[in-house]
Amino acid sequence: MSKAVVGIIMGSQSDLNVMSEAAAILEELKVPFELTIVSAHRTPHRMVEYAEKAKEKGLKAIIAGAGGAAHLPGMVASITTLPVIGVPVKSSNSIDGWDSVLSILQMPGGVPVATVALNGAKNAGILAAQIVGASDDKVSSKLAEYKTKLREKVEESIEKIERDGWKGGKIGF
Ligand code: RP5
User: Fold this and answer.
1) Quick one: which of 86, 142, 159, 163 could link to 113 by a disulfide (CB 3.0–4.6 Å)?
2) CA nearest ligand 1 atom 9, residue
3) What's the predicted TM-score (pTM) here?
4) Cβ < 6 Å from ligand 1: which residues?
5) Tell me: the pLDDT tens digits for 102-155?
6) Whose CA is nearest to atom 13 of ligand 1?
7) Edge to edge, what strands does the sheet with 114-115 contain?
């Protein structure tokens, strides 16, 4: 197996349901990744160690997901120079998800976290692949294929709606 170039971390096992979507798309795009649990609040030393070692072990981007008082992405970004993509998770301790979104989004100047939508782990995976793909032609052509499929799917829907009309039934995405 090739060496991981993307690190997926999350604050709790309970985030895995959402965060597994990042893993699934990276697998589809053939981007080697690693996935583990790192809690900013419950395992702070592990978080510092993970962020400190991430670059030297060959990662090119980190996807960090957390819910509620979601400090993991921002704290990891404060330690590493790698790009950090934050996934706000609508967790059991989350007030409608807004706490997770704002905790990850509203970073101070100098310490950016590329924040995706609430539960947006799939887009986080795609964005990480795009970061890797900027200097890896294999990944970039996988992404181009992926975008072609997206376009074709919409074109199918257009054809269907033009053929069958708006009452003609739904097409799934
Ligand atoms: C956050 O608190 C985690 O990222 C998770 O989203 C949330 C709840 O964690 P558990 O109490 O389910 O472990 O730190």
Assistant:
1) 86
2) 12
3) 0.94
4) 10-12, 14-15, 39, 41, 66-68, 89, 91-93
5) 999 999 999 999 999 999 999 999 999 999 999 999 999 999 999 999 999 999
6) 12
7) 33-37, 6-10, 61-67, 84-89, 114-115
